[in-house]
Amino acid sequence: MPERLYALLEGASSPACLDCAECCHMPWVAAGEATALSTEMSSGVRFGGSDCGRCSALRGKLCSIYDSRPLDCRLFPLDIVEHNGEYWWCIFLNCRAPDELAAVLVPRIPALEAAMTEELWQQFRQQIALTRSTYAPYAAGNYRLIRRVQGAVFNSPSTASPTAPR
Ligand code: SF4
Ligand code: SF4
């Protein structure tokens, strides 16, 4: 369940986040998170959507539900994209602190992969298919590839390079 991933992502933020909120567009909510966030959702917070609008949990530049924000928000700028038919971990470069956050997040990728359930992998696939043309930074290729996702649900073992092309 996402809680295991939350623990692995503990402390992965930057002081830049306090005055930014650039990433606060259309987060997606994983299975299991919908229940945890039901109070906020029933009180009018809208998550997701195809219009790339601002998240309605945003108050000024701060998240009003920070302690129960979705996995999608906790990961950013780390994410998964489909690149030339393969799934890759990437760092989105529309983040204000991509290098600082990559230094914290990238070493955690193996533990995140180990904690991912098949249900979560499948949800990532669905979200990638939905957002690759609707999320402008994804559509524009504004991300840096980190390494191929190691997971049978995404990439089967192959002889392809596990690290980013130069
Ligand atoms: S875009 Fe980057 S720096 Fe800005 S709030 Fe999101 S994670 Fe933090
Ligand atoms: S839930 Fe919070 S962190 Fe996530 S997009 Fe909305 S305001 Fe930003």
Please tell me about this protein's structure.
With 166 residues, the chain is α+β, with helices and mostly antiparallel strands. The chain has one domain. 33% of the residues lie in helices and 14% in strands. It has eight helices and five strands, in the order H-H-H-E-E-H-E-E-H-H-H-H-E. It has a three-stranded antiparallel sheet. The longest helix has 14 residues, at 118-131. The radius of gyration is 15 Å and the shape is globular. The structure holds iron/sulfur cluster (2 copies). One iron/sulfur cluster is lined by residues 24, 27, 55, 57-58, 63, 65, 69, 73.
Order of helices and strands: HHHEEHEEHHHHE
Mean pLDDT: 84
Shape: globular
Bound molecules: iron/sulfur cluster
Q: Spans of 5+ residues with little confidence (pLDDT < 50)?
A: none
Q: Tell me the domain tally.
A: 1
Q: How many DSSP helices?
A: 8
Q: Give helix % range.
A: 25-40%
**How far apart are the termini?**
35 Å
Arrangement of strands in the largest sheet? 3-4-5
Q: Output the radius of gyration.
A: 15 Å
Structural class: alpha+beta
**What's the total number of strands?**
5
Q: Main attributes?
A:
166 residues; two-stranded antiparallel sheet; globular; binds iron/sulfur cluster
Quickly describe the structure.
By secondary structure, the protein is an alpha+beta fold. 33% of the residues lie in helices and 14% in strands. It has one domain.
